[in-house]
Structure formats: structure tokens, C-alpha cells
User: Fold this.
Amino acid sequence: MQNSKIAGIGFYVPERVVTNKELEELMDTTDEWIRERTGIEERRYAKKHEETTATMGVEAAKIAIERAGITAQDIDFIIFATLSPDYYFPGSGVILQREMGMENVGALDVRYQCTGFIYALSVADQFVKSGMYKNVLVVGAEFHSCGLDFTKRGRNVSVIFGDGAGAAVLQPTQEEGKGILTTHLHSDGKFAEELAYYNPGCHGGKFLKDDKKPHFGEEPEFGGLFMTKEMVEHGEIYPTMNGRYVFKHAVEKFPAVIKEACAATGYKVDDIDMLIPHQANLRISQLVQLNLGIENERVYNNIQKYGNTTAASIPIALCEAWEKGLIKEGDLVCLAAFGSGFTWASALIRW
Assistant:
């Protein structure tokens, strides 16, 4: 069976840089507090009413397609990973397809947040390996800044996230031992509510602990669960995160899924030339690095200047590391992520 390879990669981040100092003016936080706990110094915010998740994905995709030496019309299939789609439905994949003038190709949206890009990459890998598609476009994009709570109530979450997009084009390769060697995907829904965006939704509070029960207000006999005025007034339309809980599980699952990828291919952690972890928190990355005994030169982090861009973080970091010459032909590259779900995943690639 043929392997798939990343034939082209690109990323896009908005022009507007938002520093920690700027956030100090909006909520009860400090630059020192944010840096100490997350490592973040600044992030990018998209232009409201001008940019969207899909338009940022388009910009990243244009670069990836050009670097792959093809045109948009050569793309056979689109896989779009995001937690912040342009619309509740349809997904952002079809918006990107329309904006890029692609003719009737299929589009699949992946909603696995921080692990979204690796999940999407794994699906694309299977499509290419099976021979079903020859040029698969994989996109990870997020527009977080339009849905964050910029008050004291939401400060622990809102300071973490930024906007941006990354994309890759997967093609078949006949070179022995080249391309995507293995991918590993996991989930544990027992912890779904520890990192989640509860509303809008149809759960009606069914899975939430009593202290998190939403405010429904006067409900009609039909409808009324999706979104109510009371939910908005009580700030129940923003993401919620049990930070310590997420941190604890992340530092366990990251090393485990990286070792799993190595074991499946007969490599050791010492063989990895570059590790690209999901940019969730610099402290998580540092602990994972320490656990695995990987030197600084073999790990790429850029959360300091982009924040956590969720599904976009791995392709942005991967592309930036490659552009800087830190990833070269023949290098063994490992991608790893942990996030909402809980889900965790890894991919091992011979560049």
C-alpha cells in the first residue's frame, strides 16, 4: 500500500497582534500571570465582519496548494477541522470549497478541537493510501476571539486563545519509508464536560453537574433548549474549562501517545528529529519534553506569539518550523495533541 505525504503546507494569521497588556485593560489579569501560567505573550485576532474561520482557511490553503505544485481544481477532497465554524451548519469545509472555486468536491468537517488537525490528517491519510483520492486538502482554522468572555468571569479561558489557520495537501508517495508512517487516535468521553462549550445545544442540562445547570427561563412546550435570553445574561454561552484537570491529563496522555507512535514503527523517542506538540500551554509542552528527555532543539513551540489556536495550532507550528529550516528532507517528525473530549492523538511522519 502506498503512503501519503505532505506535499505542501501553509499558514495564515491575522494582522492584529493583541498583547497581554491589552487584555489587562479588559479584565482582571496581568501580563505576568498569563506568562507564568501559559507562556503566552501575545496572540492574533481576526477582523470582525471581514475575516471568518473559512476565509482564514482559504488563505492558508492557497499557500499549501501552491507549494504542492497544483491548483485548487486539482483538489479531490477537503477535510476542515475547527471548533469555531462560520455557521452552526453547514460546516466551514463547503464555504472554503465555494470561495476557492473548487468544482463539486466533497468536504468533511471534523469537530475534535485541539486534536482536530491530527484526526483530519489521519482520515486524509487513509483516503490517499486506499487510492480513493490523490490530492486531499486538510485545513485547521479557528476564529476564537469572536466567542470569548472578556470579563473577570472568563479571564482564565479568554487569555489563552488566538485566531489563525494552517493547511496541508496530502498526496501519494511511492518512496519507501517516506510520508505519514502511522497515526493514533484516542478518546475518553468520561471527561467531556471538563472542557466544553455547552450552549447552544440540546442537552437541556442533562449531563451537567447541579452547579452548572443552565438558566432556561420561561420555556414553551416546543423548543427553548437551544439558546435562551437567560443563558446569554448568565454568561452560559462561553467555553468552560477545568484547567487543572485538563493539565493533569494532558501531561499523561501526550507522552503516552508519542511513545505509541514510536513503538508502532520501531523507532525510539531519541529518533525523533522534531516534535510539534499542540500549542495548548507552554508549561504542558515543557513537562512533556522533560518526561520524554527531548532537547529544546527538537521541540517547536510558538504559543508565545500566537496563543492556543486549537485545530490550527499544529499546522501553523509545523509550517513555521519548516519555513525556518528546522524540518528538513528525511527528518522524522512527530505531531501530538490532547484536548476536549477528552481526545488525544499522534502522527509520525518521515519528511
User: Anything to note?
Assistant: Residues 179-191+241-350 form a domain with the Peroxisomal Thiolase; Chain A, domain 1 fold (CATH 3.40.47.10).
